[in-house]
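Ops channel
N.P.: pipeline sanity check, posting one input/output pair.
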């Protein structure tokens, strides 16, 4: 599947470095999860095949995120890779770095 992403995410994917996503860059588990998620997305033929990878927790989002989908970067954290599905594949737009997602209040 074709995976498009902005330059910051591409740098993070290819080099493990990004000025915008330094918190992911510094966290080995999140960085490896991001790379694993993108690698998996590249290998499938379409988005529906992502459901077969339980570690991704693929879901189509609702409410204010309607029109987007997400996969989890790690089972230890709630950080998500959020993307928009297109006719050509997916367009990765941002990484959600919100630890209050799913009701995890600190």
């Amino acid at each position: 599947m074709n995976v498009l992403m902005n330059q910051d995410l591409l740098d993070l994917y290819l080099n493990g470095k990004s000025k915008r996503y330094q918190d992911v860059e510094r966290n080995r588990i999140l960085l490896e999860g991001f790379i694993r998620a993108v690698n998996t997305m590249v290998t499938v033929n379409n988005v529906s095949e992502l459901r077969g990878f339980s570690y991704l927790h693929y879901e189509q989002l609702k409410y204010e995120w309607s029109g987007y989908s997400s996969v989890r970067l790690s089972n230890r954290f709630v950080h998500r890779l959020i993307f928009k599905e297109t006719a050509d594949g997916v367009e990765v737009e941002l990484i959600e770095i919100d630890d209050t997602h799913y009701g995890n209040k600190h």
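N.P.: looks fine end to end. The two ends are 37 Å apart (CA to CA).
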